[in-house]
């Protein structure tokens, strides 16, 4: 079908009847920002830029934030020499001069600006072959318009011969030709006007604040935290732990609670004097001048003050502790509580017995195994992690750029790279090139550079200084006053002393406040997601006139690259598929106007790291198990990991065959006692039934444990009401078969037998319209440990299934783009027994010819046999080219069955990118063969001859989504 026919069908769907089948990408689209559903106008514009041959933007308002969201795409277009024109406006002097300067660095883009009249258009044109895509509506080229604002935009696709494109192109050309060419001279002139406007607006804002009087009140999240603290106190709890991301107002929150509690004597403990002084200012601002406040640290010892702000280093010394009775302070706050396991903190906590103790930290997780939660009786008052804080607009947004580190002398930067390569001039030049290209919000860089070693930090600072930058390198050897002086210089507006960058390793990971930081450069491998977030957090505090933080991460060939998306997206499940999908989603899964961008090679390095990473090392499983145990104050169950966003408990099942087995090994003093059959059943249920791939067996099992019988019609009605699909009688019978473990087999006495027969298992049976529990299984459930762990496994599976279930993506048992093993697939397709993998190969027709699942390893290994090097692949996102098994002709039984699909054969397609992804495949949708495409051809075998094979083209319904399509098809 030619493009005009495809376009006509899509126009009919968009403007006449939504039920008309057509190409989704050609249909008119309504573009909005919808954070709940992970939609941003930005995503569509980035996709259009990736596919276009030329682009034209007309936007009244252009900001540095807007350019920051697109700059990665613009860099790629520049490399491919894709031409573009951008038309901005000086209307209301809103457009940022720095944004114009940022655009001008691209040689492939012509930039002009309308300087007169009320030019207020917003349109984006993309030329592709014989068509244009036009986005027109309300979105300017600003980060808020592209990511968060309530915007309405319409995207239409039209022939380049159409009237609407003719009019749009003529209008753009007319305005563009009459607009002023943007030169550096113009930007300098305009910058004077823009700065005056900005200064005036800031003064007006401060004037209004002064007139109105700024009353400080808790924000919504602080109110919730305060209510929780009060609730704990009302329940006779005298300790609480606040987990709150850096920059979210922990100090103010504590001050609000102190204001309500009204202690006569109060102590605020921190580990640095500068923070103690800042905290005192905050409390004075909120509580007023009537409370006597003082500092107790070093030579300043205001012991008579009612509210004392002290450093741990001073007050932990015994001679200072002896000056205060244990009950002297009614209320104590300990900031940076994750340090509280240290002996100095313990000495203080053992000495004092306040009426109430509040701990505050951004990262309670410790790597040394100490239990911070126990110190606060496991009372978590509130938890505000990074992503929640970004959602609530409590932090400055960030634009993250993952860029490929330099290859020098054909050597990639990796975990073992030596000093000379890490500080080579070529690498320094590349760092500077990217620092300037990505820039910062206002063009006046105030940056932190995190390095892997102090000697590298020192050398890179020296290299930067030789190239005209003003930088300093700091380490743990530098005293506090040197660090503070460097911070003041970094934030200074006096060009004679201002620093551009501070180079460091880890001394700024925590406990330091530099609000004006607007660029962070990471020149080290990510060894910890916690440290990554700590370093990112140095630039996330909100401050007036700071629009966003730029983060530039140089990604080498590091083993732990997979930790980057875990840190950025805040997903700590360590589920490989989840992490891959987050990367593929780009900025859609990041809250607010923040964006995440990787260049092509760095993205591939991260995918490779995910593939090769072992996510179930015992030490990592044990660490996360203990962390959750500390947090809860008890042994965690599988459902707890899910509810607390912790490591995917399925990893514990993979490691130990069941979660019970892992717990039993960890808890040597436990009284858990199961016999061999119960242990085996927990293993079987965990891996074969309750893996959240099909929900029916799990729900049947739960109901039978609770009620001992289940009415089939009632069960069908429940599924229909909750999941909006119908369960067939065949599926019910399949579930009973699976619950009795007849579907799976194990080898015994050199032959494969159903597991049920090997272990003599009787779980459930069906009598008329009732499913009932067997007495043998009921007896096993009398053991409370067995029942507890089985129900936990069941509840975990239900919750996990429900979290990912989307009725709009559910197709007869499978969820689009979820992963399934071959065994999962045959179970869901109601096969009576799991076939041998070598018999399946790439596909297998069921005995009743009702289904034929097709499995494709998209990027095949070079060392496989010639007769399995099938040329399978996407022609586009709704057409798939496929080859039958070798030695097949048009008259082969399986080929004939597939060709006669309309006799009731279902053809679900499952794809994995490569064997590196393991044994699971993405469900891509159901296939419909194109009858005219069946073609018998030849392929080579390992003996130098040729064998017959059949080629077929299939249509996929629905078309594959761009993110998963690009992930599977693209490779280096």
Fold and architecture overview:
- The structure is a single chain.
- With 972 residues, the chain is of the alpha/beta class.
- The protein is 40% helix and 20% strand.
- It has 38 helices and 40 strands.
Using brief descriptors, characterize the structure shown.
eight-stranded mixed beta sheet, nucleotide-binding, single chain, 972 residues, helicase activity, 40% helix, P-loop_NTPase, alpha/beta, helicase, ATP-binding
The number of E-state strands comes to 40
Helix percent band: 40-55%
Number of helices: 38
User: What structural class do the secondary elements suggest?
Assistant: alpha/beta
Provide mean pLDDT, rounded: 93
Strand order of the largest sheet: 1-7-6-5-2-3-4-8
Overall geometric form:
globular
Low-pLDDT regions: none
Give the termini separation: 32 Å
Instruction: Kindly report the oligomeric state of this protein.
Output: single chain
| Computed Rg | 32 Å
Largest sheet: 8 strands, mixed
Summarize the entry for a quick read:
Residues 231-382 form the Helicase ATP-binding domain. By secondary structure, the chain is of the alpha/beta class. The protein contains 38 helices and 40 strands.
Give me the secondary-structure topology.
Elements lengths: L2 H13 L13 E3 L9 H11 L2 E6 L4 H16 L3 E7 L7 H8 L4 E6 L7 E7 L2 E7 L5 H5 L5 E7 L3 H16 L1 E2 L2 H29 L7 H15 L4 E6 L5 H12 L4 E5 L2 H15 L5 E5 L2 E2 L5 E5 H4 L2 H4 L9 E4 L8 H9 L4 E6 L10 H4 L4 E5 L1 H6 L6 E7 L2 E2 L2 E2 L6 H4 L2 H14 L8 E5 L2 H13 L4 E3 L6 H12 L9 E4 L14 E5 L5 H9 L11 E7 L7 H7 L6 H9 L10 E4 L1 H13 L5 H15 L5 H6 L6 H7 L2 H8 L9 H14 L6 H12 L1 E3 H12 L5 H11 L5 E4 L2 E4 H5 L4 E4 L2 E4 L1 H6 L3 H21 L5 E2 L2 E2 L3 E2 L1 H7 L8 H4 L13 E4 L15 E4 L2 E5 L9 H7 L8 E5 L8 E9 L5 E6 L5 E12 L4 H8 L3
Parallel strand pairs: 2-3, 3-4, 9-15, 9-16, 10-13, 10-14, 11-13, 14-15, 17-24, 17-25, 20-22, 20-23, 21-22, 23-24, 34-37
Antiparallel strand pairs: 1-7, 2-5, 4-8, 5-6, 6-7, 11-12, 18-19, 26-30, 27-28, 29-30, 31-32, 33-38, 35-36, 36-40, 37-38, 38-40, 39-40
Helix pairs in contact: 2-3, 3-4, 4-7, 9-10, 20-21, 22-23, 26-27, 28-34, 29-31, 29-34
């Amino acid at each position: 079908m030619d493009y005009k026919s495809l376009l006509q069908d899509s126009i009919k769907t968009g403007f006449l009847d939504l039920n008309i089948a057509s190409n989704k990408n050609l249909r008119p689209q309504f573009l909005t920002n919808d954070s709940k559903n992970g939609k941003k106008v930005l995503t569509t514009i980035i996709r259009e830029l990736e596919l276009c041959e030329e682009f034209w933007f007309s936007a009244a308002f252009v900001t540095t934030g807007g350019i920051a969201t697109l700059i990665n795409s613009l860099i790629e277009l520049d490399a491919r020499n894709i031409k573009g024109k951008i038309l901005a406006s000086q209307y209301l002097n809103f457009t940022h001069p720095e944004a114009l300067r940022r655009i001008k660095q691209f040689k492939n883009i012509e930039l002009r600006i309308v300087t007169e009249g009320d030019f207020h258009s917003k349109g984006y044109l993309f030329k592709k072959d014989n068509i244009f895509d036009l986005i027109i509506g309300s979105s300017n080229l600003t980060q808020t318009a592209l990511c968060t604002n309530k915007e309405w935009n319409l995207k239409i696709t039209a022939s380049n011969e159409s009237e609407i494109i003719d009019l749009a192109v003529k209008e753009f050309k007319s305005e563009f030709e009459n607009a002023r060419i943007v030169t550096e001279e113009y930007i300098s002139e305009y910058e004077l006007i823009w700065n005056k406007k900005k200064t005036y607006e800031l003064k007006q804002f401060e004037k209004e604040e002064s007139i109105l009087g700024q009353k400080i009140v808790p924000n919504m999240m602080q109110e919730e935290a305060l209510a929780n603290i009060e609730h704990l106190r009302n329940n006779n709890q005298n300790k609480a732990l606040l987990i709150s991301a850096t920059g979210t107002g922990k100090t103010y929150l504590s001050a609000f609670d102190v204001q309500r509690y009204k202690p006569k004597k109060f102590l605020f403990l921190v580990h640095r004097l500068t923070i103690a002084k800042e905290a005192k200012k905050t409390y004075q601002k909120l509580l007023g001048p009537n409370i006597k406040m003082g500092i107790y640290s070093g030579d300043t010892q205001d012991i008579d003050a009612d509210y004392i702000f002290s450093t741990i280093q001073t007050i932990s010394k015994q001679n200072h502790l002896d000056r205060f009775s244990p009950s002297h302070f009614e209320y104590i706050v300990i900031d940076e509580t994750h340090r509280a396991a240290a002996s100095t903190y313990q000495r203080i906590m053992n000495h004092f017995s306040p009426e109430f103790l509040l701990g505050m930290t951004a990262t309670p997780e410790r790597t040394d195994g100490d239990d911070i939660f126990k110190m606060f009786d496991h009372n978590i008052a509130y938890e505000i992690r990074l992503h929640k804080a970004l959602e609530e607009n409590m932090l400055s947004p960030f634009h993250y750029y993952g860029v490929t580190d330099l290859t020098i002398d054909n050597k990639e930067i990796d975990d073992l790279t030596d000093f000379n390569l890490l500080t080579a001039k070529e690498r320094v030049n590349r760092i500077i090139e990217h620092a300037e290209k990505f820039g910062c919000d206002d063009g006046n860089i105030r940056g932190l550079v995190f390095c892997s070693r102090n000697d590298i930090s020192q050398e890179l600072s020296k290299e930067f200084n030789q190239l005209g930058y003003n930088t300093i390198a700091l380490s743990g050897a530098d005293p506090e006053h040197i660090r503070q002086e460097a911070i003041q210089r970094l934030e200074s507006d006096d060009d004679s002393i201002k620093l551009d960058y501070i180079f460091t390793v880890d001394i700024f990971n925590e406990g330091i406040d530099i609000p004006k930081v607007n660029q962070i450069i990471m020149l080290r491998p990510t060894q910890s997601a916690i440290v990554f977030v700590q370093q990112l957090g140095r630039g996330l505090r909100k401050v007036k006139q700071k629009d966003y933080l730029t983060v530039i991460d140089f990604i080498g060939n590091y083993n732990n690259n997979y930790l980057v998306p875990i840190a950025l997206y805040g997903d700590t499940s360590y589920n490989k598929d989840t992490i891959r999908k987050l990367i593929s989603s780009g900025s859609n899964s990041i809250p607010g106007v923040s964006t995440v961008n990787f260049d092509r090679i760095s993205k591939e390095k991260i995918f490779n790291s995910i593939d090769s990473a072992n996510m179930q090392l015992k030490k990592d499983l044990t660490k996360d198990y203990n962390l959750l145990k500390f947090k809860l104050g008890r042994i965690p169950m599988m459902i707890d990991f899910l509810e607390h966003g912790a490591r995917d408990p399925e990893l514990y099942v993979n490691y130990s065959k069941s979660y019970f087995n892992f717990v039993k090994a960890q808890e040597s003093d436990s009284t858990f006692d199961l016999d061999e059959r119960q242990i085996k059943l927990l293993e079987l249920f965990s891996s074969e039934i309750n893996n959240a791939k099909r929900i029916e067996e799990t729900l049947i099992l739960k109901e039978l444990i609770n009620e001992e019988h289940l009415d089939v019609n009632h069960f069908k009605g429940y599924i229909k009401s909750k999941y909006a699909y119908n369960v067939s009688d065949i599926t019910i019978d399949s579930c009973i078969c699976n619950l009795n473990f007849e579907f799976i087999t194990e080898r015994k006495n050199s032959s494969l037998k159903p597991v049920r027969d090997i272990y003599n298992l009787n779980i459930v049976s069906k009598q008329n319209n009732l499913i009932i529990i067997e007495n043998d299984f009921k007896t096993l459930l009398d053991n409370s440990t067995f029942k507890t762990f089985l129900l936990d496994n069941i509840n975990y599976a239900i919750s996990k299934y429900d979290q990912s279930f989307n009725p709009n993506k559910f197709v007869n048992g499978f969820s689009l783009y979820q992963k399934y093993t071959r065994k999962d697939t045959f179970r869901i397709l109601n096969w009576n027994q799991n076939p041998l993998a070598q018999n399946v190969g790439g596909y297998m027709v069921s005995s009743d010819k009702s289904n034929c699942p097709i499995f494709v390893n998209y990027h095949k290994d070079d060392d496989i046999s010639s007769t399995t090097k099938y040329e399978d692949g996407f022609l586009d996102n709704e057409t798939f080219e496929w080859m039958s098994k070798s030695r097949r002709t048009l008259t082969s039984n399986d080929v004939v069955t597939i060709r006669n699909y309309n006799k009731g054969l279902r053809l679900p397609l499952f794809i994995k990118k490569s064997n590196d992804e393991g044994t699971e495949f993405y469900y891509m949708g159901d296939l419909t063969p194109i009858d005219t495409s069946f073609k018998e051809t030849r392929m080579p075998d390992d003996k130098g001859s040729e064998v017959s094979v059949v080629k077929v083209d299939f249509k996929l319904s629905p078309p594959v989504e761009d993110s998963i399509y690009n992930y599977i098809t693209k490779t280096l």
